[in-house]
């Protein structure tokens, strides 16, 4: 069983070094919620914790695993990682969790061992058979008195949407055996629709400007007091207005400030110079890395995962040009569909793949507005060095936007939301 497990996916593996727990004094409300759910004596459904990219879901999951481990309640944890040879492989999930549970529960180990010995090929079976034979049946036979919890983080980073849905169905089935599962992922539509809404408890990770501010203040002070290049810098550093600017750019999410802090706090560089680079007040050294490299990689992965790249790029061209072209702060599905002369259903299908970076209304109303989850995403789209193939230069972007928008105005210029564009065309 050890050979079939992805041991690097556990919460305490060597690879967990790059996945730190929550920063001190942050996310206490969510950890308290998870603790109460895990300790409840009554029959409890599995819990799905979700939130958009950059809200610190994995940090919360890591902290929760450490808490469970400290009190002897963690039966196993699996942290998926996109593109990883074993951590993105769904076939590794249940063998890994079974192996971990066997190491902490002798009764379970005694019940599992003969099953694996009699049929070593169990680790190659379907997910549902793996769950049944490697975890549920031996767990039922062992009948442990202790309440165990299994944690699955980053489900959306597992290879294959169908497999992600199958894992959700397996977890829903497993809770009837007394095991408690926490599943953590982005709010992708295919995961959300995999199981009935009432079959899971849900915990939504939301933005928190106050916690981001506390994080930045504490981390900047740590850099000031520990970095060799900062010995002569007095408190406070940086100033209040600069921290306010960074907090605003974070949109209340941790991905932006955590990337900035890693960039500024690099021991091999001067934090004062690096801060100037982040704030756009200085030119980066030719050998320096971009402070947004990790963030950009995440956005590119999200965009490349959208099946209809042609439709996506037309939507991005319109959205990224909107400030210059028609001064709209946000769009509705209906607006985009009319401008691009596509059906709202097709637009929603594409935007549904971008729930990690946009806030898309859950209702059927196509006229409700959608917004960026994170302010750095439109910044990313407007920077050719960061966005790469997803960047539209001014000429290409304007040509596409103007051509489709003129066609739209010819038949829809009387609509109030676009009336100012019609006036602009008359004046020209």
From TrEMBL:
- Region Disordered, annotated ranges: 1-22
Q: What is the lineage of its organism?
A: Eukaryota, Fungi, Dikarya, Basidiomycota, Agaricomycotina
Stretches assigned to the Nephrocystin 3-like N-terminal domain: 35-186
Q: Which UniProt keywords apply?
A: Repeat
Q: InterPro entries, per this entry?
A: NPHP3-like_N (IPR056884), P-loop_NTPase (IPR027417)
Q: What is this protein's name? A: NACHT domain-containing protein
Domain of life of the organism encoding this protein: Eukaryota
| SUPFAM superfamilies per record | P-loop containing nucleoside triphosphate hydrolases
């Amino acid at each position: 069983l050890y050979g079939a497990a992805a041991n690097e996916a556990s919460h305490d593996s060597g690879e967990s070094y790059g996945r730190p727990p929550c920063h001190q004094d942050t996310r206490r409300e969510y950890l308290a919620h998870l603790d109460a759910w895990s300790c409840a004596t009554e029959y409890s459904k599995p819990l799905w914790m979700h939130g958009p990219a950059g809200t610190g879901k994995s940090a919360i999951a890591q902290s929760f695993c450490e808490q469970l481990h400290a009190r002897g309640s963690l039966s196993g944890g699996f942290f998926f990682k996109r593109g990883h040879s074993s951590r993105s492989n769904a076939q590794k999930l249940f063998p890994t969790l079974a192996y971990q549970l066997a190491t902490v529960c002798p009764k379970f180990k005694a019940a599992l061992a003969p099953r694996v010995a009699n049929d070593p090929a169990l680790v190659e079976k379907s997910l549902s058979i793996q769950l049944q034979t490697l975890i549920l049946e031996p767990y039922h036979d062992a009948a442990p008195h202790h309440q165990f919890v299994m944690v699955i983080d980053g489900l959306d980073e597992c290879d294959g949407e169908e497999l992600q849905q199958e894992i959700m169905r397996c977890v829903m089935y497993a809770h009837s055996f007394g095991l408690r599962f926490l599943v953590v992922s982005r709010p992708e539509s295919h995961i959300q629709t995999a199981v009935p809404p009432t079959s899971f408890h849900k915990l939504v990770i939301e933005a928190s400007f106050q916690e981001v501010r506390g994080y930045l203040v504490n981390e900047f002070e740590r850099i000031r007091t520990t970095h060799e290049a900062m010995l002569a810098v007095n408190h406070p550093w940086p100033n209040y207005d600069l921290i306010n600017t960074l907090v605003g750019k974070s949109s209340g999410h941790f991905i932006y400030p955590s990337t900035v802090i890693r960039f500024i706090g690099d021991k091999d560089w001067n934090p004062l110079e690096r801060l100037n680079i982040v704030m756009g007040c200085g030119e980066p050294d030719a050998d320096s890395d971009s402070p947004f490299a990790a963030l950009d990689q995440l956005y590119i992965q999200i965009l490349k995962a959208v099946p209809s790249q042609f439709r996506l790029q037309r939507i991005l061209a319109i959205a990224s040009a909107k400030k210059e072209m028609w001064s709209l702060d946000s769009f509705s599905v209906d607006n985009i569909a009319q401008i691009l002369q596509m059906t709202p259903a097709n637009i929603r299908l594409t935007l549904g793949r971008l729930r990690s970076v946009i806030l898309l209304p859950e209702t059927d109303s196509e006229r409700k507005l959608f917004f960026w989850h994170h302010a750095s995403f439109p910044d990313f789209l407007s920077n050719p060095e960061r966005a790469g193939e997803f960047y539209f230069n001014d000429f290409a972007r304007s040509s596409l936007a103007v051509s489709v928008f003129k066609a739209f105005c010819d038949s829809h210029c009387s609509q109030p939301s676009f009336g100012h564009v019609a006036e602009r065309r008359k004046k020209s």
